[in-house]
Amino acid sequence: MIPVGILGATGMVGQQFIACLANHPWFKVDYLGASERSQGKAYRDAAAWRLPSALPDRVANKVVEAAQPGQAPKLVFSGLDSSVAGEIEAAFAQAGHVVVSNSRN
Q1: Which residues contact 90 (CB under 8 A, 6 or more apart)?
Q2: Backbone angles phi, psi at 12, to 5 degrees
Q3: Whose CA is closest to 63, among 78, 45, 77, 49?
Q4: pTM reported for the whole predicted model
Q5: What is the separation, in whole angstroms, between the first and last Cα of the chain?
């Protein structure tokens, strides 16, 4: 399995990434990055899950980290809002992460 991270994990696009990757044969969600107000919380407590599918158990207890490069796996999927995506995604890319972005930036 290839470890991946999700930036903006608590938002709707981040939730979509989590749902799509929950049972993926190649990828395993190992990192959840979000705003500082979610940092340190279990994902189930930090995110208001809004999708019709159930919150994946493998992700529910993961601790949310601040969306800063360093602890994230090499590959990250970004569901960040375009108002913050440019700066944060650039920081991840400059730190050597591969960023797959949903942002218009």
Answers
A1: none
A2: -60, -45
A3: 45
A4: 0.93
A5: 29
